[in-house]
Write a structure and sequence with these properties.
Length: about 140
Amino acid sequence: MKVKEQKRTTVTGTLGADSAIKVEVSDKKKDKMMAVLSQGLYSEPIQSTVREIVCNGIDATTKAGNNEPVVVDLVTEDGSMFFTVQDFGTGMSPQVIRDIYSKPLESTKEDNNDEFGYFGLGSKAPLAYTDSFTLI
């Protein structure tokens, strides 16, 4: 989804120089950043997880030119319940998973209005509810 470009914010400090606000995350602060982006991002983590993962499935299926519906299911196995989403898209290569899917703020959906995503955060939505999930 295209988003209107925002003007960069500049801060003038007591040193008299203007400097653009930057996002720099040290290795030491990565866990803190992930907590903010996952646990602090959604006020309704279960609903948000379902919405984000289903929307990604719809995007993948549509992009593949497939008309199959995305299959959402709750599976009980060995006393545990699992939420599953199956799409009928083209799949993701290990490189796409490594370079885009697994990195916050990386997205392939920034330049069009035909897909739901933009910010590169939806694929991490399950982390708002649980500390791990499985992608097959």
